[in-house]
Fold:
Amino acid sequence: MVTFPGFRVLADGSSVVLVTVSRKVAYQVLTTGHLVTVRLMGAYVDVQNNTNPLLTDLFPTPVRTIRLRPDKEGTSLVVELKQAATARERVVDLAGGSMVLELSFAAGRYPSPQAVGASTKLSIRSGSPPRRTGSRSR
Structure:
C-alpha cells in the first residue's frame, strides 16, 4: 500500500518529495521535460483521497505539484516541475519491510507562480482556512 505523497523544504533551501510504501517494491524513475514519474510496481493506493494533488507551487522549489496515479500495474508518483531540475532518488528501508522513496531537489532560484503564468493569491478570512483565489493558466 502507498501512503499519501509528502513534501518538505529543508533549512538549506533544498526540497524532498517522499512516499511511504508498506512493503519493498521495484520502482523505475522516468524524467521527461517537466515531469518526474516514479513507477511503483505492484503498489496500490487504498484511500482515494490520497490521489488528490499536493500543490507546492508557492514554495521556492522546482516542484509544482505531486500526485499519486494508480493503474493496473501499480502506482505512479508524478511530480510536475516549474522548470527542468534533477531529482536525486534515495530509498530508506524501514522496520517491518516498508520503505520510503525520496526524491531530492537542490536549492536554487525557481520562478514564482506569477512568473510561470499563474495568478494566485491566498485569501484568509477570520475563522476560515486559507483558500486559493485567482485564475491559473497552463
